[in-house]
Every structure is written in C-alpha cells, then in structure tokens.
Amino acid sequence: MVDALDKPSTLLVVESYDDLREALAALLVLEGYTVLSVATAKQALDVLSRLPRIPSLVLLSLMLRNPEDQRFLSRLRNLDLTSRLPVLALTADPDLQAAPAGTVGLLGKPVRTEVLLAAVDRYRTRH
C-alpha cells in the first residue's frame, strides 16, 4: 500500500493483452496508485511526451524479439530518462533471463501479486 505520507504515485502500465492490462491497473489502483495504461510501447512514448510530470514507474510487458519494446528502452536512454524513470519489465519470454539495459528489474509471468507489489514499491521513485 502506498505510504500515507507519500504523495500518490503515478504508474504507467504497458501491456498488450487487454485483460491483463486491466487486471494490473485495477490491482494497482486498489493499492492506492494512480494508473495510466496503454497497449504498446509506442503509445507509452506518446503518453510520456504529453505528461507534465514523469510517472514514478513504468511497468513494461517485454518481449525480447519485439523491436518496439527495444526502441522504447533505447528512446528512454537517449532522452536521459532512465535515471529518473524506472522501468520494471514483466515477461513470459523464456529467452529473457536477466533485466535488459534500461530496466531496474525483471519479473517473470505469471507473477504473484505480492511479488509484483513489493517490486513496484521498491523501484518506484518518490516525487
């Protein structure tokens, strides 16, 4: 649960599967977070370019062979956002065993709720 003394954190969820994106968003909202959600990394870049403040964390569903996901991480590095915008990757890709460059961590799907929430709390920035 978000600390009562902490301002509510805004999280950006990037997940292509509608049902999973909605479930992640609902869970995080119940935990007190403000959640923005999009289906693609390209949409995430568009959202990030329009926000007055960067989110506290991006939860990115990542596929190793998806060039759009790799471009997203590269673009964040090029914009020098990776030091201020943590990206926590979620994957079901068996070939992805370690957190890729530009991410703060990697969680395998399916992920237990308590593991996900602990990771979100650990890695989010507190503005």
Tell me about this structure.
It is a single chain. The chain has a five-stranded parallel sheet with strand order 2-1-3-4-5. The chain contains four helices and five strands, in the order βαβαβαββα. The chain has helices at 18-30, 41-50, 67-78, 113-123; strands at 10-14, 34-38, 57-61, 87-91, 105-108. By secondary structure, the protein is of the alpha/beta class. The model is unreliable at 1-5 (pLDDT under 50). α2 (41-50) packs parallel to α3. Helices cover 36% and strands 19% of the residues.
Keywords:
single chain, 5 strands, 127 residues, 36% helix, 4 helices, 5-stranded parallel beta sheet, disordered N terminus, globular, alpha/beta, 19% strand
Topology record:
Blueprint: E1 10-14, H1 18-30, E2 34-38, H2 41-50, E3 57-61, H3 67-78, E4 87-91, E5 105-108, H4 113-123
Parallel strand pairs: 1-2, 1-3, 3-4, 4-5
